[in-house]
Amino acid sequence: MTDRLAALMPGLTVHAVGLDPAGANLLIWSCADGHVLGPAGAMPFGAELHLAARIGGGVWMEHLWPEMPAVRIGSDDATYPLVALALAELAQPRCGSVALMQGYVQAIIVHILRNAIERGKVSSGVLAGLADPRVSRVLVALHDDPALDWNVERMAGLAGMSRSAFIARFGKVLGVPPASYLRQFRMARARQDLSAGEKTRTVARRYGYGSPEAFSRALRANGQAA
Length: 226
Description:
10 helices, globular, alpha+beta, 49% helix
């Protein structure tokens, strides 16, 4: 089985789980038959807030999460018991509550993203690309081996499409050309590794740059100094 989310989740962080919506980008509120999970701007006026959290990190989370629409989690949904556990823990915290709540929220996020891919709930962006049978082959390969000397011909061959058809399809689904997406993804991975304290030379080599100087120029071009 190809795991379309594996390369995107490392580094995912969950902060400030509670009932304060200030700064939160994930909220859970009540609906007629269960709960709704979504960004702060999606919660209707007067809805009862059950949980607020701030999520970040992950290689591509800043691109994945804003694409997500609000998601209803009814009592018949497979994610419902997990949400119920999280809300119960928040209502009556016990030993290890912080770690447990972070784990619950991370698991809920993975469930939501996975369902969005499998059911094609997002029409454009990374999640839509991962839901596309042909484009997803290329995205998973790029995510798994970003240092490879990728070119459009190699990507198109992997997708089983002509060069022109692949470029058109990729641009329609992702909103950017294949080379631009790869460059952005490499930079996102590189920033994460540099933030973790890795050396510039090591990170440059990992993502296919011939020298630390070339890598530093690429970082500057993308608004990040090495």
